Amino acid sequence: MAISASAPLHQTLHAAPAPAVAADTEPPDPGGLISARLDRLPATRAVWKLVLLLSLGFFFELYDLLFTGYIAPGLVKSGLLTPTTPGLFGTSGVASFIAALFCGLFIGTAACGFLADRFGRRAIFTYSLLWYVAANTVMAFQDSAGGLNFWRFVSGLGIGVELVTIGTYLSELAPKHLRGRAFAVCQAVGFSAVPVVAFCSWLLVPRAPFGFDGWRWVALLGGVSALFVWYFRRNLPESPRWLASKGRIDEADAVLKTLEAAVARQHGAALPPPGAPDPVARKAGFADMWKPPYRRRTVMLILFHIFQTVGFYGFANWVPTLLVKQGITVTSSLLYTTLIGLAAPLGPLLGYLIADRFERKHVIVAMAALNIVSGLLFSQTSSASFIVVLGVLLTLAGNIISFTYHAYQQELYPTAIRARAVGFVYSWSRLSAVFSSFVIAFTLKEFGVTGVFVFIAGAMTLVMLAIGLMGPRTLGKSLESISH
Predict the structure, then answer these.
(1) Is residue 246 part of a domain?
(2) Could you give the number of structural domains in the chain?
């Protein structure tokens, strides 16, 4: 039976088909029914439009997040930073610039993840985007290492909040049968920022158009995202799951009925009936993360994030510098990096084919193994063709891991604390990146490129162990059933 887009909530609840129940059984939980109605939606243009809008936001976010490594040679060339530092925690090197970003990301994810749980996914998505665009614009005009690092830290606060919010938002809007593919598409669109920023860096960093350092142009180009912010806000509804978790059932119902009506028109047939609703936990706090079944998941994700960051950002942020250290010129290293960057969106696109077919934990373990092998071989070659091929494999493996764990971690907590919990566990990756950037700089100085990739290989081995031994299965399950 199709659900009318204009029916009031009490009629909708009664109209939605449900399994027969005994007379003394409690009526279905309204919040659970909201989720069940979302999960049964076919994958039509209306659903994919929401995924695409969030993906475009993710594109601008990754542009600002990932230009760090690409502009690093330009920062060194301009005399603002040095490739390495005399001491482990020097503040004048590239490592301090990377660390400043991740300090901001750590605080943004750990301390501010609750904002999306309190004020809603839509509002925080918009304002955190505006925050980091403004901060990066100011950063582009700095002339000292201190000013550069401070404004990179400020932009990191906004990026950290945005990272958590987009993942939470997407997991709650996507029906369960395409949740993995939705994250794959989001990451594919987002990581298309990698070849864009790589190409812009190759084109601009070695030059100074109009007397303005090329790296500054690269940073400023990210500000174009501000032009799209209000368009995103106008076309994105609030998460019905979040509204239901706050007891705002009528608002959730109104948002969902609009979506259902659009999906039904595009589907060309009556919507399938919702499944039996799972109860929704409306009251949960930070302490619940440390109670079964969430405690094991929290420990697993903390371990995972501490070590996966070493593999992902150890390559993404350092590859131009590593190539220069091997004797390749700045211009050539940026050209190689641009070619490698072209593979960035291909990882999630390839992952689209397996996203809802294989358990997420198994995909993460397999790609971590590929990262280890490719990284160790990368450290031993000086051939241009092998550098590009192995760089592409490292990029594909890292980006498949990325979209998979972004979907996976969102599935492991209830709606009431999803953003806060994911923000907390995710923040450990930011803390790890702060210290690992200094360790990589020190390792590069003392042990060369090979030492860096041995360090990365050890970290990815621990990733395989944490996820492989402790990770639960989530494939094809509703968010509520995973939570319970």
Answers:
(1) no
(2) 1
Structure token digits, residue 353: 């084919």
Q: What are phi and psi of 82, to 5 degrees?
A: -115, 155
Structural domain includes residue 362: yes
Burial degree of 462 (CB within 10 A; 0-12, 13-18, 19+)? middle
- Determine the structural domain holding residue 185 and report its residue range: 45-241+282-476
DSSP 8-state class, residue 414: -
**Beta strands, E only, 25-134:** none
pLDDT tens, residue order, the chain (484 aa): 344 433 443 344 333 444 444 444 455 678 789 999 999 999 999 999 999 999 988 898 888 888 887 888 889 888 888 776 555 455 668 888 888 888 898 899 888 888 999 999 999 998 898 898 889 899 999 999 899 999 999 999 999 999 899 999 999 999 999 999 999 999 889 888 878 888 898 899 989 999 999 999 999 988 776 667 777 777 899 999 999 999 999 999 999 999 999 999 999 999 999 988 877 666 777 888 999 889 999 999 999 999 998 888 777 667 766 776 666 665 667 677 777 877 878 888 888 888 899 999 999 999 999 999 998 898 887 777 888 888 889 888 988 998 899 999 999 999 989 999 999 999 898 788 778 877 888 888 888 888 888 999 999 999 999 999 999 999 988 898 887 7
CATH code, domain carrying 457: 1.20.1250.20
Question: Does residue 145 form part of some domain?
Answer: yes
Tell whether 258 is covered by a domain. no
pTM of the model: 0.80
Q: Is the dihedral of CA 423, 426, 428, 431 positive or negative?
A: negative
> How far is residue 107's CA from residue 97's CA, in Å, rounded to a whole number?
16
